[in-house]
Amino acid sequence: MYDSEAKSDARSLMREIRARHPRLRDAVAADARVTLFHRSERHGLNPGTDTLQAVLRLLWVDDAFLAQVLYRLKARLQALRVPVLPRLTHHLAVLTGQVSIGDPVVVHPGCCLLHGQVVIDGFVEIHPGVVIGPFVTIGLRSGDVIGPTIEREVKIGTGAKVLGNLRVGAGATIGANAVVVDDVEPGATVVGAPARPKA
């Protein structure tokens, strides 16, 4: 009896998470705008053909963007309850950009992966405008399934680790190789292991 209730609760929770994923087209367009800005290429996109051309070019030249789009596609396929294909898109994201984003992760539109080698897993939420460097891990601490909430416009430096049930406030900066295990105040810059506000 307990097992069937637990499975039902888990399925219900995953349905709720999948319902929070943004529409594929909107998310990819927003991700493209932010990626182009951080690549110092463009500061905006016009709707329609201009956006489509930019997305296609980024898919060709930027492995991390390709992996991010594959994550978006995986999330959409899961929401539609399509079998097998979500796993394939996940594996393709790992193969092409070494980007592994778990099923319970919600990434809002308009985020940028500067390069690949990124792992995000657990019940994690990432808000718009977040920029994630390479070799970053965002996820869990032992014994907990709740991961971080990363608020708007946060910058996460190369090699940083953000672990556990914590909140990184809007506009914060996490330094390269920092290990964040506590909340970060909005607008703060934290460095070190464990991460502390920069003096």
Structure description:
There is one protein chain. The protein is of the alpha/beta class and 199 residues long. It has 2 domains: 1-98, no CATH class; 117-199, Hexapeptide repeat proteins (UDP N-Acetylglucosamine Acyltransferase, domain 1, 3 Solenoid), CATH 2.160.10. It is built from 5 helices and 15 strands. It has helices spanning 2-19, 24-38, 49-61, 63-79, 85-97, and strands at 99-101, 106-107, 112-113, 118-120, 123-126, 131-132, 137-139, 146-150, 155-156, 161-163, 167-168, 173-174, 179-180, 189-191, 196-197. The strands form 3 sheets. It has a 6-stranded mixed sheet. Strands 1-4-7-10-13 form a 5-stranded parallel sheet. Helix 2 (24-38) runs antiparallel to helix 4 (63-79) and helix 3 (49-61) packs across helix 4 (63-79). The relative contact order is 0.10. The model has no long low-confidence stretch (mean pLDDT 90).
Regions with pLDDT < 50 over 5+ consecutive residues? none
Distance between the termini: 55 Å
DSSP helical segment count: 5
Spatial ordering of strands, largest sheet: 3-6-9-12-14-15
Could you say how many structural domains there are in total?
A: 2
- H and E string: HHHHHEEEEEEEEEEEEEEE
Estimate what percentage of residues fall within beta strands: 15-25%
Summing up helix and strand content along with how strands pair, one would put the structural category as: alpha/beta
Q: What gyration radius follows from the Cα positions, in whole Å?
A: 17 Å
Shape: globular
Helix coverage percent: 25-40%
Major sheet? 6 strands, mixed
